[in-house]
Structure prediction request, 404 residues.
Amino acid sequence: MPLGCFPLKHRKKNYMESVIPNQPAPVPGDEKRTAPMPAVATKGSQRLLSLDLMRGFIMVLLTLESTRLFDHLSTASQGTVFENLMLQFDHHPWHGLRFWDLIQPGFMFIAGVAMAFSLTRQKQDGFTWSQRCRKVLKRSFWLFFWGVLDYAVRRTGLSFELWDVLTQLAFTTLVTFLVFEWRPVYHIVFCIGILLLTELLYRGVHVPGFSEPFTDQHNFGNYMDLILMNKINKKGWVAINCLPTTVHTLIGATVGKLLLSDARHKLKTLLTGGIISLVLGFGIDALGITPIIKRIATSSFVLASLGWCLLTLTFFYWFIDIRKTKINPRFFLVFAMNSIFIYLFFEIVGGRWFNDYVGAITGGLLSLLNMNTTLQLICTSLSIFALEYLMLDFLYRKKVFFKL
Prediction:
């Protein structure tokens, strides 16, 4: 498979790799199609079911969003009690925090946790530091490549843009690897340094027209976009978000090391870290020091979103791996095991062809029933999602997992 993305064949021991290494946990009633795996990671095991479920949950939401389901539900909810609820499924226009603003941090945080599992396994398998470095460099290259390609092809021609989450993840992955072997306390100090550097750049670099640190279109991030791409994003996104959001990936890796360790009170540590991050993030915002702005990833936003990421993983870890709740995880696992593939599919194929093709079919059929236009669009979105799920389920059953 070209361009760094390839299926992994079935090995003798049913040992598979994906974006997160190893095979998922067995699905109740489906033992023949999956290989066994411990529910809770020990020092020698390499997977947490809770981690897969959280990743799968994030990818389900992103896939639903790509079908424009939330947009159609928002239209349908106007003038009802659900109108304010549906606002949570869109990014905040500037200063504030909504549920949807937490999806990208969660994506990058989980990538960091999974990275800790992957690097630990590689080290146990005898990979040298230079070998691991080459693998990370290759992964970062392909993340950057696909992130640029996602925005490159337009109806008006080619475009070079660096606002995709994959281009950010390429940077944060590499930085995380370089400091991965440090002690956790040094990780925290390094993250504080990153946030302070971000504050300094926005507040201390004075460029005519771009010296207002927290004003849309007039901040340091917008200036850097002019330098890097000779353009500014009209919606306020900036490419140097890759710097502060390194905190999400690095702390994710730190959490991964914690979960793989023999440390006691893991839940307490995660819970405490989440609460502290939330208090700091919302506190800095409330005191008027630095506003919470997702579009330029301010330090207060990074801390507040990190707090929610920590608390969410704490809940999944407690509910699945500690409490050992009996659930069938298959629905989320099919998304988790091919997360990069489905992201690229709905971003590149779905947004440019697949969604419109399915919409033409469903719209034509449903119009024969004189169905309301908004309801037609909702049904179309659900049809797109169902087809994408069936495609992922087919890959899952055939044990074909794509990685970068």
